[in-house]
Write a structure and sequence with these properties.
- This protein has 366 residues and is α/β, with parallel strands linked by helices.
- The protein folds into two domains: 206 residues, 3-Layer(aba) Sandwich (Isopropylmalate Dehydrogenase), CATH 3.40.718.10; 141 residues, Isopropylmalate Dehydrogenase (3-Layer(aba) Sandwich).
- It is built from eleven helices and twelve strands.
- A ten-stranded mixed sheet has the order 2-1-3-12-11-4-5-10-8-9, with helices on both faces. It has a two-stranded antiparallel sheet with strand order 6-7.
- α1 packs parallel to α11, α7 packs parallel to α8 and α10 crosses α11.
- The longest helix is centred in the N-terminal third of the chain and has 20 residues.
- It is globular.
- The two termini are 20 Å apart.
- 48% of the residues are buried.
- The structure holds nicotinamide-adenine-dinucleotide (NAD).
Length: 366
Amino acid sequence: MPTLKFAVLAGDYIGPEVMSEALRVLEHAAGLHGLTLQATYADVGGAGIDNHGKALPESTLRICEASDAILFGSVGGPKWEKLPPKEQPERAALLPLRKHFTLFANIRPGLLYPELTAASPIKTDRIPDGIDIVCIRELTGGLYFGKPKETTPLPDGDVQAVDTMIYRKSEIERITATAIAAARSRKKILCSVDKANVLETSVLWRRTVTDYVARHAPDLQLSHMYVDNAAMQLVRNPNQFDVFVTENMFGDILSDEMAVICGSLGMLSSASLGAGKNALGLPFGLYEPAGGTAPDIAGKGIANPCAQILSAALMLRYSFGLEEPAARIEAAVRKAVTSGARTGDIAFGGPSVGTRAMADAVISAL
Ligand code: NAD
């Protein structure tokens, strides 16, 4: 019986609430497919600070290293907001995890079921079939990590700050390879988003993506778009994209825009795949909901667990190569929602269920 060895980092506020439901769904799916779960729990974020004095305790890192994937909740919240920025849960836990495991490829499905189009701020007649697109964001390069990165007082009394946007061809090639795989699993349509009319890094980006796709994936239909236009097109007609790939900062902004047009953060999952392979020879990855810790609804048992459940499905797909149970969980979430089980964020004022009942509906649909 295959054993799935993964670390569970539930985090803070609604993190543990939605995580426990995702694990119940995962247990059920595992039972149906003859899989054994070996989940190891560890503190991260505010829980790491409270229990170990650090957002990413050494013991947590060791547990992650000994696992084939990380199922992550979300971290942070008002309790730790007064800490210095460098010690804040998100910055001191997520960024080091991304760096430590070279999690360079962020895959974010932008999925809105046709039954939930009312949740989108886009006019429903523009998205009669909902939204179904994928954003691939480069996660370990570009402006967020480039050096120099500093603030300097100047002799004339002024102050200057600098961030550096930097990309290597090899970094662009590896994220392009991820985008190619995603596009091939869908409609074979890929759009690369850049700012090649202004930025040197974008000129290299565009040339590298073009060459790499020509050499490795001539079967794909590749197009390019400037990022400012992409931001507009996402709102005008999101489904003109199928898979789009972009650098770190552009992806940060566009993926959040995509999350908004897809209605609720409670429905959106994400995968961050590493450069390294796990013990199964598959990408090591970190899987987490797109949203944060939602302190405004924490402790009430009303958070939507679907994003966490769908993140667990992505973990099965990418880090364990288990497409069938992954697709089965995704179909069960869809069936549960479309047959009327809705948490408050997707109920549009109609009857709503709590976190546990939502997961129960997914389990029944499984
Ligand atoms: P948030 O995503 O936590 O919440 C934004 C809104 O979406 C809230 O109204 C919230 O109730 C709602 N929401 C989010 N997830 C939901 C769910 N599963 N079900 C129902 N509603 C949901 O963003 P925020 O309020 O800006 O941030 C709160 C905390 O989360 C902050 O400390 C922030 O730093 C942290 N955060 C962490 C991560 C992460 O760990 N990856 C990501 C984003 C924000």
